[in-house]
Amino acid sequence: MKITNAAILAVAAVGALHLAQRERHQRQQNEVAVARIQVDRLTHLAAHPDLAALWAPPGMDAEEYVKLLDANHQICALSLRHKLGITRGEQLRFVAEKVMEREVGRRYWKRFGSFRAEEAAGDKPSEEFTEALQDAYLAHPEIQLAGV
Predict the structure, then answer these.
(1) Contact, 71 vs 107, CB < 8 A?
(2) Is the terminal CB of the chain with fewer CB neighbours within 10 Å at N or C?
(3) In three state form, how does the secondary structure of 9-65 look?
């Protein structure tokens, strides 16, 4: 039985495709694991305001920080959905808009949006996500005018 070059190339292509798929799946599993750690930490701090106070930015009381942690929790869940390719494009912009319709979402973004932008720098999906949230934030100027 003679194996042709086309058959060898087909087997090699299938093997390469399988390896790429496994790498993507592993990357997604890593994203989920890291997100789980972060969400667990946010949940822990929200349940223990005395510990949250230790991590609050200077001048921010623990109660306000816990509220912003809750907004961060929501944004982290949305971020994971975006990174996994579940929420993209117009759907991402729609959900970002819904987050920024909430005053606590806008307060969170006013305080930590620039940090998230720095964190996203150089990572195209993260930059896209941050841009969608920033655009939604800017569409709600009421908090900026209040000077909160």
Answers:
(1) yes
(2) N
(3) HHHHHHHHHHHHHHHHHHHHHHHHHHHHHHHHHHHHHHHCHHHHHHHCCCCCCHHHH
Contact predicate 126/92, CB 8 Å: no
**End-to-end alpha carbon distance in the chain:** 77
C-alpha–C-alpha distance, residues 72 and 109, integer Å: 9
Instruction: Please tell me the distance from the alpha carbon of residue 123 to that of residue 65, in angstroms, as a whole number.
Output: 27
pLDDT, tens only, 49-60: 999 999 999 999
Token pair of 112 as six digits: 């930590």
The CA-based dihedral angle spanning residues 72, 119, 122, 100, taken in that order and rounded to the nearest 10 degrees: 30
* pLDDT tens digits, one per residue of 78-133: 998 998 889 999 999 999 999 999 999 999 999 999 999 999 999 999 999 999 99
How is residue 102 annotated by DSSP? S
- If you compute the radius of gyration of the chain from its CA atoms, what whole number of angstroms results? 21
**What is the model's pTM?**
0.78
Q: Tell me how far CA of residue 142 lies from CA of 58, 69, 99, in angstroms.
A: 25, 21, 15
